[in-house]
């Protein structure tokens, strides 16, 4: 999620996805009954598809040959397609987005799995799923995961692929959810067009920003797509679900915080989407206000007291800025009642996305009467070391349904 060294996050994504291939293969059982919800008006969203390639089981196994036993789990060849589809920007304008769909070459109806990727820096735009770049997580371990028996829908999100001219709405719950939901709709439309057999099961996985996107997607699907895209089970990992508490945590911190350059990205996103239009000097001290205005991804100090300006700090800690508080609250996705099974995974020593995000979500959901929510603390795990345990647990969790 929040991280100032994006290559490290890419490494973490690969670690947790490699681990998934060593987990128990998915079981097939009946999906839970859809929840009641007010549906949206359905229209076709798919605008195009391009075959990237077909890959044999031997080829897929070779991509993970350094991972013990992983290649042995390859079951089906897969075909990979780049899809384009209609979705909407945060301000409601229609646009074209893209993603990858990975289709096992099988004769039985398979479930769909929506995979929400983690943080991608603008310089890593070529690692977005629809490029299917050699060495990317979708090219390697996600492909092997698909080969075990899932049609994988992997949205690029806004700001990557077909929509790379747009700014990525980093950690903006509504647009991450809607873009991922529209990609899932496009994937099902594509399967229908191509006579790919799929059942009605929809699984959701993602870690870090992908975990936050997964939680937002689960909430949206139950609220708006309960009849057409019922959630079978989801397992978000290490997401910053409690944005208001996270902001206070940052501005009260006395210890170094290595993720502050990414939090700058979050603030810039919210300032733009919610039309706060605050000057950089509202958020940051000099010389960082001038520096970040020139280069939003430039280095910043790890001590929050050196980076953030007094007006911003007081606004958050005193709840004195109504518009700013509303933007943070709008991205809180911890306090709601899921119906489908949901498992929260999080390292208890996570120093990028503190564990309280998952604990708060679990407590709030329990208080609302959710009966199929589980909390899986990864004892002593930080944001990176927890990735393997997350995926082993998450894959085993969805395999029950």
TrEMBL record:
Signal peptide: 1-31
Protein's UniProt keywords contain Hydrolase: yes
Membrane-spanning intervals of the chain: none
Keywords, ordered alphabetically: Hydrolase, Signal
One GO MF term: triacylglycerol lipase activity
Residue ranges occupied by any AB hydrolase-1 domain in the UniProt entry: 135-384
InterPro entries: AB_hydrolase_1 (IPR000073), AB_hydrolase_fold (IPR029058), Lipase_secreted (IPR005152)
BP GO terms, sorted: lipid catabolic process
Keyword Signal belongs to the record: yes
Gene3D superfamilies: 1.10.260.160, alpha/beta hydrolase
Name of this chain's protein: Alpha/beta fold hydrolase
